[in-house]
Design goal:
Its main location: cytoplasm. The chain has 4 helices and 5 strands. The protein has 113 residues and is of the alpha+beta class. The protein has a 3-stranded mixed sheet with strand order 4-3-5, with no helix packed on it. Helix 2 packs across helix 3.
C-alpha cells in the first residue's frame, strides 16, 4: 500500500511488484494480485482499465477526476473540469437521478511540442 500511496502515476500490478520487491524481498507477483483484489473489494484502491493496457491502480481517496490517455506513451493524465461535470449532473437530475459514479477517458495523441 505504501508503494501505491507514493505513486504519482497509475502503476499496473507488475510495476507495483517491481517497486515493492526491494522493500519485501521474495514478494511474489501472485501475492500482489491477491492484495490488489482484496484492497479493491474493500474500496481502498480503484482499478482502471484503459484501452490496450493492463489494469492499473490508484488510491481510492483521491478526489474525482477523469483521464486523458496518451495513445503513444500509455501515460494517463488526470484532469477535472466543472464545465464537464455540471452538465452531466444536470442530465442525470432531469429524470430524477444523482450520479453515484462515472468515468470519462479521453484517448489522445500529442500533436505539438
Amino acid at each position: 500500500m505504501d508503494v501505491l500511496a507514493e505513486a504519482e502515476d497509475h502503476p499496473d500490478a507488475a510495476e507495483l511488484h517491481r517497486r515493492a520487491e526491494p522493500r519485501a524481498p521474495g514478494l511474489s507477483l501472485p501475492t500482489v494480485y491477491r492484495t490488489l483484489s482484496a484492497l479493491e473489494d474493500q474500496g481502498v484502491i480503484q482499478r482502471h482499465q484503459f484501452e490496450g493496457a493492463p489494469a492499473c491502480f490508484q488510491r481510492a481517496e483521491t478526489a474525482h477526476h477523469d483521464h486523458m490517455i496518451d495513445i503513444g506513451t500509455g501515460e494517463a493524465v488526470e484532469f477535472r473540469s466543472d464545465r464537464i461535470e455540471e452538465p452531466q449532473a444536470r442530465i442525470a437530475a432531469k429524470p430524477g437521478y444523482d450520479i453515484v459514479h462515472h468515468r470519462m477517458e479521453l484517448y489522445v495523441r500529442k500533436t505539438r511540442g
